[in-house]
Design a protein that fits this description.
Number of helices: 13
Largest sheet: 7 strands, antiparallel
Strand content: 5-15%
Helix content: 25-40%
Structural class: alpha+beta
Distance between the termini: 30 Å
Oligomer: single chain
Shape: globular
Length: about 400
């Protein structure tokens, strides 16, 4: 497949562009972009393919794309900035800032446990719809009442959708202006860094710029992709009573990637799932955190906390939602043996279908990749693996 790749690459970084081009030549991509920063210096910014294949519209320099759980990393950068501003400490009890959170035996959960997927709150039992999700007060009441699925701190499980709601309410409680996480991110991260990335796309943004998600995901199709997905995860996802299925089931539309093309899904704030922006924004934001945060004036204590691993759950690293070993810290993934995306200091998040953003302070890298053709790999999509490995080779050269 011959695709014209556009953009700029600094000397010594051509291997990333080569890998990006190869992804199209193999037929694995429809449209995509990749960017790499070393600190505040942009060294890779490439894009290609189609943002809307039905209409034959090309992926352009200003194309925006929804990045699913790669959003969690961007949201957690905003939470880290709030920590840097002294609005809370990671070892504070959540109830110190949000008293209603203490319902159903949650009064001893720390912010660190909550952000590290150890709080036992991946599922939300109170039925919600998109109207409710657009109302911060309704969401706060539902998640404050939630009973933990396990004793907090004993084990962990991926809070695939709920994490963003908890982060947003925490920000609302500690922010003197009581902003939601999407608002806080825009004002305190995106504007100072001069990047375009939204958690809830504003009405004034031209929808024609947004890439159309290409996804044929549905439950039974998982069975045809068992080589890409952990079998235990698929079994759990197909069992509606399991914690795995319940994590993605309320409301069910949130677990259907193709529905993220809907205007109703783009408009509301889903801080764990519907971040939409330019891919270079992801790389630039992570580059800021990788190199010391001079633009955002980040506190050294915050940066040191992000570089360290979180204390592991007492019963080990088996993720009861993903049903494989994982490692999390302060809203981010940390590298683990089957998802070795950087040094021990690295932190970031992958997104459904293959996207990825991360910072690696050891090399100063800020990395972003996203595409509109979704595959089934939970972390190790071959397209992003080629790109991130090329970036690490160039950084080491």
């Amino acid at each position: 497949m011959s695709v014209h790749v556009q953009g700029d690459v600094d000397d010594g970084w051509g291997a990333v562009a080569d890998a990006f081009r190869a992804n199209f030549e193999s037929g694995e991509e429809v449209g995509a972009a990749c960017a790499v920063y070393v600190g505040d210096r942009k060294v890779v910014d490439v894009w290609g393919g189609l943002r809307d294949p039905k209409r034959g519209l090309p992926w352009e320099e200003d194309t925006l794309v929804t990045v699913f759980s790669t959003t969690k990393g961007m949201s957690s950068l905003a939470v880290a900035l709030a920590h840097s501003r002294g609005l809370f400490e990671y070892d504070d009890l959540v109830v110190e800032h949000w008293p209603e959170f203490g319902q159903a035996g949650k009064d001893h959960i720390t912010i660190r446990q909550l952000l590290s997927h150890q709080a036992g709150l991946p599922a939300i039992d109170e039925p919600l719809d998109l109207d409710a999700l657009a109302d911060p007060e309704a969401v706060a009441a539902a998640i404050a009442a939630q009973e933990p699925a396990w004793e907090p701190g004993v084990r962990h499980g991926y809070h695939g959708l709920s994490l963003g709601f908890y982060e947003s309410e925490l920000i609302r409680r500690v922010d003197p202006k009581s902003r939601t996480l999407g608002q806080y991110f825009n004002d305190e991260v995106a504007l100072p860094l001069d990047v375009e990335f939204y958690i809830g796309v504003p009405a004034q943004v031209d929808r024609r710029r947004i890439a159309q998600i290409q996804a044929d995901w549905y439950r039974l199709r998982m069975l045809f992709n068992l080589a890409k997905l952990p079998r235990a995860f698929v079994a759990g996802f197909l069992n509606p009573r399991s914690i795995t299925a319940r994590t993605y089931a309320n409301p069910k539309v949130l677990g259907k990637p193709a529905r993220y093309n809907d205007e109703a899904m783009r408009r509301i704030e889903l801080p764990a799932a519907n971040g939409t922006g330019e891919v270079r924004a992801i790389a630039k934001a992570y580059g800021e955190f990788a190199c010391g945060g001079s633009v955002l004036d980040l506190d050294d204590r915050t940066l040191a906390s992000l570089r360290r691993a979180a204390p592991d759950p007492t019963e080990g690293l088996y993720d009861v939602v993903q049903r494989e070993s994982t490692r999390f810290s302060l809203g981010f993934c940390k590298p683990w043996p089957s998802f070795d995306f950087g040094s021990d200091q690295a932190f970031g998040t992958p997104g459904a279908g293959g996207s990825l953003g991360f910072a690696d302070p050891e090399t100063g890298l800020g990395f972003g990749y996203a595409m509109n053709r979704l595959d089934y790999y939970p972390t190790e999509d071959p397209r992003q693996v080629r790109l991130r490995e090329a970036a690490h080779r160039c950084a080491a050269a």
